[in-house]
Amino acid sequence: MGFWDWALKAYARQPVADACLHLQDAHGQNVPWLLWAAWMAQEGRSADLKDAARMMRAWDVEIGAPLRSVRRALKPLRPPVDEAAKEALRDAVKAVELRGERVLMESLEALSGSSGQPMPMLGGLIAAAEAAGDPPRRSALEQLAAALDNPNG
User: Fold this and answer.
1) Do 135 and 37 form a contact (C-beta atoms < 8 A)?
2) Residue 78 domain boundaries
3) How many domains, in total, are found in the chain?
4) H helices within the chain, ranges in order?
5) Tens digits of residue pLDDT in 81-125
6) Burial class (CB in 10 A: 0-12, 13-18, 19+), 135
7) What is d(CA 68, CA 30) in angstroms, rounded to the nearest whole number?
8) Phi-psi category of residue 9: left, alpha or beta, with phi > 0 → left and psi -120 to 50 → alpha
9) CA–CA distance from 68 to each of 13, 91, 94, 114, 152 (Å)?
10) Phi, psi (5° rounding) for residue 109?
11) Burial (CB count within 10 angstroms: exposed 0-12, middle 13-18, buried 19+), residue 95
């Protein structure tokens, strides 16, 4: 299964979404990056993590984080701005943000080697977090790995 489809399926499970958002909000992690690392481990794929991390960080600083910031800034009420118009704009920004994540994810998948022997999910997450710099607490990555390893959760 391709990375995008795998990520959509995984993220649709509430424990995975919760763990990802915790890693993003509390630890400054890039969700597509972590999902890519998990997918690569499950698929037994490899890539040059340092080069991929440089690409991901540049994308996040210049594209991902600004879009997320605009979307979040549009969440609260902003009188006298019409609420329906503001929400329509927020939905449009959200769609662009999602498209940006997909572009990043497709770019990361293109850097991935071919499938091989599956690797431990936690090990893949730790390696990717370390390559990206400023890795989160291990317990946060363990929580994501456990959520991803449990297809019923």
Assistant:
1) no
2) 3-149
3) 1
4) 3-11, 14-27, 31-43, 49-59, 65-73, 83-110, 121-132, 138-149
5) 999 999 999 999 999 999 999 999 999 999 998 999 999 999 999
6) middle
7) 11
8) alpha
9) 21, 12, 8, 32, 29
10) -60, -35
11) exposed
Q: Which residues, at least 6 apart from 125, have a Cβ–Cβ distance to it below 8 Å?
A: 34, 37, 38, 41, 141, 144, 145
Tokens read off for 30: 């890039």
Give the pLDDT confidence score for residue 150 in this predicted structure.
83
- Ramachandran region, residue 112 (left: φ > 0; alpha: ψ -120 to 50; beta: rest): beta
Residues 6+ apart with CB under 8 A from 38: 10, 121, 124, 125, 144, 145, 148
Structure-token pair, residue 135: 């890795």
Retrieve residue 27's tokens: 């630890």
